[in-house]
Every structure is written in C-alpha cells, then in structure tokens.
Amino acid sequence: MKKIEAIIRRTKFEDVKEALLAADIEWFSYYEVRGIGKTRQGRIYRGVVYDTSSIERTLISIVVRDKNVEKTIQAVLSAAQTGEIGDGRIFVIPVEDSIRIRTGERGDIALYNAEQEK
Description:
The chain is an alpha+beta fold. It contains two helices and six strands.
C-alpha cells in the first residue's frame, strides 16, 4: 500500500476530484493548506503591498493498493497540470498497514469492501 499526497492549486481541486473518481479512486481526504514557494514577490492593491510568498493550496491524501498507485498519480497529473510554476507536488509514501476500525480487518482489504473488488 502507498499513501499519495498531492499539493495542488485550489482552482484545480474539482478537476482532480473528477479525475480520481473516473480512475475508480472513490475515497480520499483533502485539506486547505498554506505553504511557502520559490516565488517571492509583493503585490500592490490600492497602494498597499501584500506579501504573496504564502501560497494557498489544497492537500489531497489518498491511501491506495500498490496496483492503483500509477493510475492515481496519472489522474492527479493530468487534472492538476497547467504547465506554470506553482502546479504543486506529488509524494508517494509507503504504508505499512491499514486497519478497518469497524471490523478489525487488516491490510489491503481494509481499504475497500471485498464485494467491490475489481
């Protein structure tokens, strides 16, 4: 199992969500986050300079079976990419175990219901 964390532009969240659903990735968590990027500039609005180095993004967290890692990455890449600086990052992290609290099931089966196995 792997945990895939993707930091994307807020404006691309709906596109990424639809791409994940189309790839049969039906469960994930997301968070509104702020970060610091390479771009360091101030923007002027009504005569006041605002620091724009703190960037608002969405962090998507998905735990998938090994067989679904590449299709999940491709779904995020295709939906989130604009080709401009600031598109974000994808991280793939190994997951040692998962446990379904309701039943105590462990491993891959704890991620999805057995009757949904494809």
